[in-house]
Amino acid sequence: MFESKSGVLLIGGVGFFVIAFLSNALVPALMYRHLPEATVTELVERNSNLKYQFEDLSHRYPEQFAKYYGEPTQENCAEALRLGRQTYVNEGCWHCHSQFIRPVSREEDRWGPVSKTEEYQNELQRPVMFGTRRVGPDLCREGGRHGNDWHAAHFFKPQLVSHHSPMPEYPWLFDGSPNEPNRRGLALITYIQWLGSWLESYPYYEEWEPISAKPAP
Fold first, then answer.
1. How far is CA 174 from the centre of its chain?
2. Distances (CA, A) of 201 to 56, 81, 169, 196, 209
3. Closest among 36, 27, 25 to 121, alpha carbons compared
4. Distance between terminal CA atoms of the chain?
5. From first to last of its 217 residues, what are the pLDDT tens digits of the chain?
6. Listed residue (185, 129, 130) closest to 157, CA to CA
């Protein structure tokens, strides 16, 4: 069997699989095993951009925020981050959005610098959501690019802010209109605004103009 053409191809295929596993999985795991993995609480404590965004949510949606989270404390922010990631996974957002900028196809021109290992050494990046395809943009640097009101309108009805978007609507993340995000809606916005917030290039705005002021049709 191993002297035939099919046998050679079989051995070659298995060999390439082993090489790929060692180079892309085992070797990196051994190289970076000494790096500590930050908890969600630690991520909140060291991230002023995230704290700003969470507090901004409490000002923009005071009744909803008070109902579901009370005060914009670090503990509540950590709770929102965990729920936000869980909601992101449960709603299948990772199917259409990747969270890893690859060193191929001029991705740096579209999304910024190639993703670094240390960006994924934390509880919220386990496992890393590389994505299956890019129907929508890569989101690993999405935080700060749009205001919280934009994200609320986008989750409620994407076409309100992106006319030709194929993204589905998520009205169950709200108690009614885009002005009323519920617990999971606020959490998902918090998680999205966290992505890339640890970078010096994070866009920081003193104030955003609300664009979701109109009631639901």
1. 19
2. 20, 21, 30, 9, 21
3. 36
4. 68
5. 556 777 667 777 787 777 766 666 666 666 666 777 899 999 999 999 999 999 999 999 999 999 999 999 999 999 999 999 999 999 999 999 999 988 887 888 888 888 888 888 899 998 888 887 788 999 999 999 999 999 999 999 999 999 899 999 999 999 999 999 999 999 999 999 999 999 888 875 444 443 333 344 3
6. 185
* Residue bearing tokens 């989750």: 155
Q: What is the Cα–Cα distance from 192 to 188, expressed in whole angstroms?
A: 6
Q: Which two tokens stand for residue 114?
A: 């190639």
Per-residue DSSP letter, 4:
S
* pTM for the structure as a whole: 0.80
Rounded CA gap, 72 and 57, in Å? 9
- How far, in Å, CA of 187 to CA of 169, rounded? 17
